[in-house]
TrEMBL record:
The keyword Lipid metabolism does not apply. This is Cytochrome. It holds the Pfam family p450. InterPro entries: Cyt_P450 (IPR001128), Cyt_P450_CS (IPR017972), Cyt_P450_sf (IPR036396). It comes from Paracraurococcus ruber. The keyword Signal does not apply. PANTHER family: CYTOCHROME P450 YJIB-RELATED, P450, PUTATIVE (EUROFUNG)-RELATED.
Amino acid sequence: MTLFSTLAEAGRIRIAHYGMALGAAAALAGPFLRGAVGGAAGKAALGATLGAPVGQRRLFALQRAFTPNLVTAGQGIRAYDNSGTAVVTRHADVVEVLEREADFAVVYEPRMRKLTAGENFFLGMQDGADYTRDVTNMRAAVRRDDLPSLVVPLAAQRARDIMAAAPGRIDVPVELGRRIPLHLLDRYFGTPGPSEAEMAEWTSILFWYLFADLEANPSVEARAMQAAASLRDYLDAAIALRKAQPEHGGDILGRCLALQAAGQPGMRDLDIRNNLIGLLIGFVPTLAKAATQALNQLLERPAALAGARRAAQADDDTLLAAHVFEALRFDPVNPIIYRRAARDAVIARGTLRAKRIPAGTMVLAANLSAMFDPLAWDAPEEFRTDRPWDQYILWGHGMHTCFGQHINRAVLPQILKPLLAKDGLRATGPLDKGGTPFPVRFVVEWPAA
Ligand code: HEM
């Protein structure tokens, strides 16, 4: 590249950057005005705009351009102790926060200990011997080579069976999205729970409590404590029952017990139970939510939906996955990932947007914003299926990147494949979260073949 073409390219990207911000400002002006002068109804409309992923993307576009790293003394999150809030929006800075694990630490430990009635879980730990031991143990039980041999065939078959029995319409989160991970809890984990409904309910409220209860709502905590006690009791009994059998079996629970029998440290019954609690919370509500939200985004884009349908009908899993993950970029399960500054730290050092973040500040690394940053992403507003996979930040980044990332990558397209293969697919109404962090109803239908 010549100096001239480099400068021209830099100029084009900057123009796109500020162009996005101005477009966002224009789109948000109306709702903000209505919010300012429209009384309760106007405020509710503004809340709805900013609560929707498209509203959040617009707000982030403005922040990215004008105050990319915002630090305030306000405490936006009450669930975990903090002395202020920082919102980090550019791709480079979001990645920096998530990679500087010693400076920006995970916060989940106190709530994790409440759920296990004592112990921490590795998502709540900083780098250290316990973290390495627990992740290593669980990786020995949840193996990557299970995907082609076991996990994908189980998920694909279950999705096909559900769709074969569906009468021209389906409520995606309840009748499809969560039933695949629940099936895997049974056949792959060996911990089906007393019923699918209870497992879905327990894991959802626990996820809500750990990750989405930003205001520390006492009723969420009360429900989570009850669900955690039930899940602990169930898992204790399942472990005891399996140990009483002569063969432990080849599923995840059986493998954990085999590691215990071999004298592996960190694999007492209690350790196995607590690790399973952490994994189950990550497993069910997330996959169900991701499948539903990705489908919703596809349904809003006819060309993308047609592309996904062709890929599903042609059994082209790679192309189908590219559609699903690009759709999820527009409405990821976690739009922000939060950390707390363990000590005073400067981010984006040496740039004009460098910011000092005081110790104790809650740092919201806005991965949704990062994935729309035109300084890092080519034409981020476009739906494209040729983006490099490792650029996405759909399930974290750095040391705590999702333990289930390969499962997500393999299973999500399988959940949606037989549905996306239908001609004439359409939503009967909007995706409904029913006041929770999860889709609780999203009915789609298709004409008889
Ligand atoms: C689409 C589905 C999923 C999404 C969107 C998702 C999202 C995430 C995110 C954002 C993180 C990082 C949290 C942070 O850094 O604060 C994470 C970590 C984690 N996830 Fe997932 N997850 C999904 C599926 C799963 C599955 C299937 C499992 C279980 C096999 C799982 C287990 C975990 C665990 C154990 C961690 C902690 C990893 C560590 O601390 O090293 N997740 N996930």
